[in-house]
User: Which sequence fits this backbone?
């Protein structure tokens, strides 16, 4: 078995995020996730600080590490200068590298984020763009959103928009060479490999769960499952 | 001596904001949901104040939503941001103006990382050169665009056509200001007033005649939570946190919510609609919902811009109750017209409409 604490120490966010926790619980008191999920950042930091390898492995395979919203409110308030959310980010990265993320319902959702936000980055050069926010996946956007999508050109033209046009301006088309540079940066820095790791383990999990999987897009059973599944067991209330 | 000490203590909470010559970087969310806000910023800076603000068409996403959705590695985002710095260097600029709080938080995290881990900076230089052949300098001055509006708040007040005062009662309007977690909770020294005394929005509201509401959950997160919104199954987290904030501010009867961050603006607008649909709850006076405005939208109203050129009609919560209080007369017929004056369809089921 690998030493997970050593692997975590290779992530500078872990090094920065965990000095010496005295278990005061201020992070939990201020945490928006702890308010609604069965979640306690103090316990996570304590467990990781303890360094028990088997316990860290359980954590890497758990639902728990996926509850944090990365608002970073804990950083401001920790009297010891720790950042539990940075510890969480290091744990999430390691969980994906080792393929443990598919062991939990919340962890499996990484596939949905990769297939939406991740693909948008390469396709459009944006994480989010008007035309990539589908009303059927975003009912909370309300009737105005459908209206905007039905009248895209007119709406954005009045507000200075440049949809799918080259040159400066909001929602301009990102030139092909700029998107190609993004792609190269992902290749050189390990971003592409990270995406492939998410894909590889998700494909394996889809097979194990008996769900149809396709190599691209969101029109497959596994995507729908991970995007919508909620066991209802994530909160104690 | 005593004064020197005080000055030193307060210097931690002050921020130097450049005066001119900005390299402007847009926000994925704001340009998609509130493009009128960014247009106001550029128009005000260039055409009203006569400042030099440059936008490079090759600027892309910073990948911040992917980073905080934990699919983009730290080294990758550092190199993407380094590319933005390279575009800035090549364009001859040293001051960066960032239109997004998520991006701003990313930039602050990266600059601090490079300071504490110089080997990461060197690695990033190598990666960027290998991937793109580009080289970069670290910006001399880094401002969020709200910092810049804050800096020029009195210039806006001096040109005000509509103050934040209820025209009927003469009372100041009650403003809830929401800073957004990543503006200063991570690295307080980069924000006006730091994390303890954030002034960036309250300074604007007061300069324009409003009264800032202090309420128990004033600094609570809007509920975005990245993956907690991006994935449908998790949105209970997001809406519950927004509901907590609105329940806390409701007794103070706010006239508007003023936001700093692209995501916060969207969630505080759209979740009010969703909560109303789900359980019939509204948080404003007389069954209305509370209009949620960006700092540019509010600055635009104060300066007498046409609300429909600012894009206020494209929020779910419509702003008419606020416009009425401020005494702003609007042309209803103009609300859903194209740039060249052609009538568009009228959308149904908007809030406060």
Assistant:
């Amino acid at each position: 078995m690998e030493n997970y604490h050593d692997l975590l120490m290779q992530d500078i966010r872990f090094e920065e995020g965990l000095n010496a926790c005295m278990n005061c619980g201020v992070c939990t008191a201020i945490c928006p996730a702890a308010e609604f999920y069965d979640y306690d950042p103090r316990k996570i930091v304590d467990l990781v600080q303890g360094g028990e390898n088997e316990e860290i492995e359980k954590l890497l395979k758990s639902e728990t590490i996926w509850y944090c919203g990365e608002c970073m409110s804990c950083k401001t308030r920790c009297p010891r200068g720790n950042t539990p959310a940075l510890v969480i980010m290091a744990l999430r990265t390691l969980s994906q590298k080792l393929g443990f993320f598919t062991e939990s319902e919340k962890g499996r959702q990484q596939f949905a984020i990769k297939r939406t936000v991740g693909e948008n980055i390469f396709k459009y050069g944006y994480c989010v763009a008007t035309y990539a926010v589908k009303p059927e996946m975003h009912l909370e956007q309300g009737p105005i959103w459908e209206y905007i999508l039905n009248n895209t050109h007119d709406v954005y033209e009045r507000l200075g928009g440049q949809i799918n046009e080259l040159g400066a301006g909001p929602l301009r088309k990102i030139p092909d060479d700029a998107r190609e540079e993004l792609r190269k940066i992902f290749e050189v820095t390990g971003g592409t490999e990270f995406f492939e790791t998410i894909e590889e383990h998700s494909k394996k999990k889809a097979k194990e769960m008996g769900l149809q999987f396709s190599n691209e897009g969101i029109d497959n059973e596994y995507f729908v499952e991970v995007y919508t599944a909620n066991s209802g067991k994530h909160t104690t209330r | 001596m005593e004064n020197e000490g005080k000055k030193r203590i307060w210097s931690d909470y002050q921020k130097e904001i450049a005066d001119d010559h900005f390299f402007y970087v847009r926000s994925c969310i704001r340009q998609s949901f509130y493009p009128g806000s960014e247009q106001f910023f550029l128009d005000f800076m260039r055409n009203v104040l006569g400042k030099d603000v440059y936008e490079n068409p090759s600027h892309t996403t910073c990948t911040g939503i992917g980073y905080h959705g934990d699919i983009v590695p730290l080294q990758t985002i550092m190199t993407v941001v380094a590319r933005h710095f390279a575009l800035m260097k090549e364009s001859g600029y040293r001051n960066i103006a960032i239109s997004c709080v998520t991006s701003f938080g990313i930039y602050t995290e990266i600059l601090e990382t490079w300071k504490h881990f110089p080997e990461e900076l060197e690695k990033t230089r190598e990666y960027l050169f290998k991937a793109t052949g580009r080289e970069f300098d670290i910006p001399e001055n880094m401002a969020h665009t709200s910092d810049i509006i804050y800096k020029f708040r009195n210039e806006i007040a001096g040109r005000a056509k509509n103050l934040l005062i209820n025209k009927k009662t003469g009372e100041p309007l009650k403003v809830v200001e929401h800073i957004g977690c990543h503006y200063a909770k991570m690295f307080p020294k980069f924000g006006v007033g730091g994390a303890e005394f954030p002034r960036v929005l309250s300074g604007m509201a007061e300069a324009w005649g409003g009264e800032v509401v202090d309420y128990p959950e004033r600094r609570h997160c809007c509920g975005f939570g990245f993956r907690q919104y991006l994935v449908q199954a998790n949105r209970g987290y997001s809406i519950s946190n927004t509901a907590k904030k609105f329940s806390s501010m409701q007794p103070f009867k706010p006239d508007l919510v003023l936001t700093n961050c692209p995501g916060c603006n969207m969630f505080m607008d759209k979740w009010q609609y969703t909560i109303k649909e789900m359980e019939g709850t509204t948080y404003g006076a007389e069954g209305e919902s509370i209009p949620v405005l960006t700092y540019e939208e509010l600055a635009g109203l104060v300066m007498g811009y046409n609300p429909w050129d600012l894009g206020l009609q494209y929020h779910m919560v419509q702003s008419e109750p606020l416009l009425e209080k401020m005494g702003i007369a609007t042309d209803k017929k103009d609300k859903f017209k194209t740039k060249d004056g052609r009538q568009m369809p009228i959308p149904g089921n908007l809030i406060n409409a």
